[in-house]
Design goal:
alpha+beta; Sulfite Oxidase, Chain A, domain 2; Immunoglobulin-like; seven-stranded mixed β-sheet; about 35% strand
Length: about 450
């Protein structure tokens, strides 16, 4: 009945006419495939897909098939089919520069981050799973999911223009429930600007917040958890423009290895690429208990509206642009690196250096039982010292030696009562982690 009603293009591979086909609409090329047949991963089908995508000169490439390449629910049959699609079809689509893949099947809504080789990449493919009615399920939790909605039907309006592909998803009442559109800014906020300069940039690039907000995926709002150097856990309600968007607009997202944020008074903080872009960062609602329970992934942003000490986005107010980013674990002290009134981003393509290892006082060797050992570093105020006493290698989740900048009584020396090996890891923004240094003390 379907094929009798619709006049489908006759340009699919032999034996699969009207199951595989493609067509153009304005400046977009659409490729349609039957995912029931994709499970076999026939070489002829892969070759047809490769040839079809390489033959078009349209700006935007959109592929459609029923079963998802990246599922929203962990259903064994769906996961197995997805593995086949990811192994055989996704590399062809990535090589051809596909922008968007549309699917359905699982009766939930999900939009992924742009993905390449299974991980987030701003030049990758966005996978959109639609859901408009019938059975209703609850989506699972996946790192690749930028947004998931279950329990109610939704529809998505897709707009294509010279700035990209914009997705706006609404529920049956017409309310927007998900969007990759940039934020709506006041006229005052549109006039805010930020300069990007450094390696790979001729001179400097000055972007207004208004032009950045016009780009897809440019805005983000969330509650952020953080800890200051007192140390006190707290929350920030914030909305802003993503750092990724700014770096991509400056064409340095892929090359920047060291990223520095500076305010007009000269205050600045640097981050390695891994610290700010590569490492997943989260909002921890139970940060005050030091727990990772209920963690939600967040973006690093230049916030133009925020409220310190608030967990309610409705309380975020217009303020000076501020760098705000999530925690990589619920014990990380991120608050001291929030840069208020940031107006410049300086990028370097040089590989970041590593922190020098820590030292001890007294030096390792014999020590009277009951004596204490202090951990030392020439840049103690800029970094954290994590240590272990059980022989294991320390991580950022290991005990922190310099817990407080303002309450030195909390930074307690390590009492030696038996033969002990202290292993120390130095971590801090702007440099790679140090090598792990082991100090052996023989209790006398």
């Amino acid at each position: 009945l379907y094929k009798a009603i619709f006049d489908l293009p006759q340009n699919g591979p032999p034996g699969k006419m009207e199951a595989f086909y493609s067509f153009d609409y304005r400046d977009a090329h659409f490729t349609v495939m039957d995912s029931n047949a994709m499970g076999a991963a026939n070489p002829e089908d892969l070759e047809w897909l490769k040839n079809d995508l390489s033959a078009t000169d349209k700006t935007h490439k959109i592929v459609m098939f029923h079963h998802p390449a990246y599922p929203a629910i962990n259903i064994p049959k769906d996961m197995q089919r997805a593995e086949t699609i990811q192994k055989y079809f996704v590399p062809v689509m990535e090589e051809a520069g596909v922008d968007l893949v549309l699917s359905g099947h699982q009766h939930v809504y999900m939009r992924t981050y742009p993905l390449k080789k299974g991980v987030r990449d701003d030049d990758g493919i966005v996978y959109l799973m639609g859901f408009s009615g019938g059975k209703q399920y609850t989506p699972g939790s996946f790192e690749y999911a930028a947004a998931s909605i279950g329990g109610k039907p939704v529809y998505t309006v897709i707009t294509l223009n010279e700035k990209g592909i914009f997705l706006e998803t609404r529920d049956s009442s017409g309310a927007i429930v998900d969007s990759n559109r940039g934020p709506s800014l006041s006229e005052q906020q549109k006039q805010l600007s930020i300069i990007v300069k450094g390696d790979g940039i001729d001179g400097e690039k000055n972007f207004s917040f208004g032009e950045l907000a016009a780009l897809p995926y440019s805005g983000f709002e969330h509650v952020y958890s953080t800890i200051n150097n007192w140390p006190t856990p707290r929350f920030y309600a914030a909305r802003g423009l993503t750092v990724r968007t700014i770096l991509k607009a400056a064409e340095v997202l892929d090359s920047a290895q060291l990223i520095t944020f500076r305010s007009p008074d000269g205050y600045e903080i640097s981050f390695t690429r891994e610290q700010l872009i590569g490492l997943p960062r989260y909002y921890y609602p139970a940060v005050k208990e030091g727990s990772a329970a209920g963690a939600e992934r967040v973006e690093s942003i230049i916030a133009y509206e925020y409220k310190e000490g608030s967990g309610d986005l409705g309380e975020a107010v217009n303020d000076s642009p501020c760098l705000i980013f999530g925690q990589s674990n619920p014990l990380e002290h991120t608050n001291p690196a929030f840069v208020v009134n940031v107006n410049e981003i300086i990028v370097s393509s040089a590989d970041a250096e590593a922190w020098e290892p820590a030292k001890t006082f007294p030096a390792e060797g014999r020590i009277a039982s009951g004596e204490s050992v202090k951990l030392q570093h020439s840049s103690l105020g800029l970094l954290k010292l994590h240590y272990t006493l059980d022989g294991s290698d320390p991580t950022m989740l290991s005990p922190m030696y310099n817990v407080s900048t303002y309450q030195p009584e909390l930074n307690k020396p390590i009492v030696i009562t038996k033969d002990t090996v202290i292993k120390v890891l130095v971590t801090g923004y702007g440099k790679k982690d140090s090598i792990i240094k082991a100090f052996t003390f023989d209790a006398q």
